[in-house]
Write a structure and sequence with these properties.
Blueprint lengths: L3 E9 L3 H15 L6 E7 L6 H11 L4 E6 L5 H10 L3 E6 L11 H9 L4 E6 L6 H19 L11 E4 L16 H7 L4 E6 L14 H18 L4 H30 L8 H32 L7 E5 L4 H5 L1
Parallel strand pairs: 1-2, 1-4, 2-3, 5-7
Antiparallel strand pairs: 3-8, 4-6, 5-6
C-alpha cells in the first residue's frame, strides 16, 4: 500500500468555481512540506459541474487526488466520514471547498502535530461572515458546546482541523455531529490545541447553511452529552430524572396540603399540581425518548453495518493487488 503522511479531506457540494483555485492553493501550501500527501475530495451529490471538474483534476494529478462521488446529497458529516474512510494518511486535515479556509495554514498545523498534539483545531479569529446570521449563532453554539462537553474551544464550527488518524477510530458520526469530533477525541485522551487561522470572504457560490443549523447543533448536543457521560451508565441519567420528578411531586403535594390546612383549599380543586406535573413529565419524557431513539438508531446502524452514505464511484482508488505491493 502506498504510504501517505498527510491526507486532506475536502467535502464538496456545488463548488465548481472554487475547486481549481483550491487545488492550486493546496499544491502551493504543501510544496514546502517534504512529505507524501493526498487530497480526498468527496462530491456530496453536487447539482452543478463540481464532479466533472474533480474528474479533470484527478486525471491531471492522479498521484495526489482521489475523488469519492455520492449518489445524492448525504450531508457534510457523511462526506467527512467517507473522506476519513478513504484516506491513507497518518494525519488527516479537514478543509472546506469554498476557499474560506486557507490551505496555507496547513504547514503550521502540521508543526503542531509534530510537537505532539493529536488534534489541532482552527480558530477563525477574524471571521469574514455575516455577523447576525453566521458569526453570532456560531459564538453562542461554541459557548454551549464548550460548557456541556468540557472541551473549551472558540470555534467548533471551523472545518479546518488536523487529526492524528488513530484518535478518529472508535466512534461513529451521524447527523451534524462532525463538529463534535474534538470532544469525542478528548474523551479518548487526545491532546488538543487551538490555533488562529486565516479566514476569507466567500468569492463564489453561496453559503449552504444558516440559522437553522444552530438548532440542529443544540439538539445534537443532547446526544453528545449523553454519549460522553451516560452511554455506559444510563441509570444515572434516567434514575436521576425519576428521583427529581418524584421530589418535585412530593414538594408540590406538601405545599398543597399546607394550603389545605391553612386556607381550607381542596386539593382536587387546584389545577396547579396537575398542570405542573403534566408539563414537567411531558418535557422530560420528550428529551429521554429522543436520547433513547438516538441510541437505538446507532445500534441499528452499527449492528447492521449500514453505511450512512452511498458511493457512486471512486476515482484513483487503490486496487487490492496494488495495495499488496
Amino acid at each position: 500500500m502506498e504510504s501517505y503522511s498527510l491526507s486532506i479531506v475536502v467535502p464538496v457540494y456545488n463548488e465548481e468555481e472554487s475547486l481549481g483555485f483550491l487545488h492550486e492553493a493546496i499544491n502551493s501550501a504543501l510544496s514546502e512540506l517534504n512529505i507524501p500527501w493526498e487530497v480526498v475530495y468527496i462530491d456530496d451529490g453536487s447539482a452543478d459541474n463540481s464532479l466533472p471538474v474533480l474528474e479533470k483534476l484527478a486525471a491531471n494529478d492522479p498521484a495526489h487526488i482521489r475523488v469519492v462521488s455520492f449518489r445524492r446529497n448525504f450531508g457534510q458529516t457523511a462526506a467527512i466520514v467517507a473522506g476519513i474512510d478513504h484516506s491513507q494518511g497518518d494525519v488527516i486535515v479537514l478543509l472546506d471547498a469554498d476557499l474560506q479556509n486557507d490551505p496555507a495554514d496547513i504547514p503550521m498545523m502540521m508543526e503542531k502535530i509534530n510537537q505532539g498534539y493529536d488534534v489541532v483545531s482552527g480558530w477563525r479569529v477574524n471571521r469574514q461572515d455575516t455577523f447576525i446570521t453566521r458569526t453570532l449563532p456560531s459564538r453562542i453554539a461554541n459557548g454551549l458546546i464548550s460548557i456541556v462537553t468540557g472541551v473549551h474551544l472558540h470555534d467548533y464550527g471551523c472545518t479546518l482541523k488536523a487529526y492524528r488518524k488513530e484518535v478518529l477510530a472508535g466512534f461513529h458520526l451521524y447527523g451534524e455531529m462532525h463538529r463534535f469530533i474534538p470532544a469525542f477525541a478528548s474523551s479518548v485522551g487526545a491532546k488538543i490545541v487551538e490555533v488562529p487561522v486565516h479566514h476569507h470572504a466567500r468569492k463564489y457560490g453561496k453559503a449552504k447553511y444558516g440559522l437553522g443549523r444552530t438548532l440542529k447543533v443544540v439538539l445534537d448536543l443532547f446526544t453528545v452529552k449523553f454519549l460522553m457521560s451516560y452511554a455506559n451508565k444510563p441509570i444515572y441519567l434516567f434514575g436521576g430524572a425519576g428521583l427529581g420528578l418524584m421530589a418535585i411531586s412530593v414538594i408540590t403535594l406538601i405545599a398543597l396540603i399546607v394550603r389545605r390546612i391553612l386556607y381550607d383549599e381542596h386539593l382536587i380543586r387546584s389545577p396547579l399540581l396537575q398542570l405542573t406535573t403534566m408539563l414537567m413529565i411531558l418535557g422530560v419524557q420528550s428529551i429521554l425518548m429522543g436520547l433513547l431513539a438516538e441510541m437505538l438508531i446507532r445500534t441499528y446502524h452499527e449492528s447492521q453495518r449500514k453505511p450512512i452514505y452511498n458511493i457512486r464511484k471512486v476515482i484513483n482508488e487503490k486496487q487490492p493487488d496494488e495495495q499488496a505491493k
